[in-house]
Amino acid sequence: MTKLENLIALRDAVKAGEYPDFCPIWHDDGYCVHASGALCGSLDAAIALHNAVLPGCEVDNVYQSLSLGSWTVKIGLLDKQHKGVADTFASAWLIAILEALIAMEEGK
C-alpha cells in the first residue's frame, strides 16, 4: 500500500471506531505510540503526534456538541480546514491530523 492508501485506511478505521495498527506507517518514526495513545483518549499523545507530523501547523477550532456528545477539531493546512469528529477530544484530533496528512499526500 502507498502512504496515501495507508493514511486513508487508518482514517476510515478510526472513524469506524476500530483500533487499527498504526505501526506500518509510523513505526520507524515512533509515532505509532502517539497515534495509539490519541485513539485511547490521551491529549498528550495527540499533541505529540500533531507536533511531530504537522510541525508549525495550528489547531484552528475545537468545540464540543453537548447534544450529539461529540468533539470537533479543525486544523488549518494548505488554505483549507481539515476536520475530525469523534466522541473524545483526542480521537477527533487524531482524525483531523489524518485528514490533513491525506491532503498533503494528495497535493504531492
Which characteristics define this entry?
108 residues, Double Stranded RNA Binding Domain, three-stranded antiparallel β-sheet, globular
Overview in brief:
With 108 residues, the chain is an alpha+beta fold. Helix content is 50%, strand content 20%.
Given the helix and strand composition, which structural class is it?
alpha+beta
CATH fold group: Double Stranded RNA Binding Domain
- The chain-level mean pLDDT equals 86
CATH architecture: 2-Layer Sandwich
How do the helices and strands line up, and which of them pair or pack?
Blueprint: H1 3-15, H2 23-26, H3 32-39, H4 43-53, E1 59-65, E2 70-77, E3 80-86, H5 89-106
Antiparallel strand pairs: 1-2, 2-3
Helix pairs in contact: 1-5, 3-4, 4-5
Mind explaining what this structure looks like?
The protein has a single domain (3-106), classed as Double Stranded RNA Binding Domain (2-Layer Sandwich), CATH 3.30.160.20. A hairpin with a 2-residue loop joins strand 2 (70-77) and strand 3. Strands 1-2-3 form a 3-stranded antiparallel sheet, covered by helices on one side. Helix content is 50%, strand content 20%. With 108 residues, the chain is of the alpha+beta class.
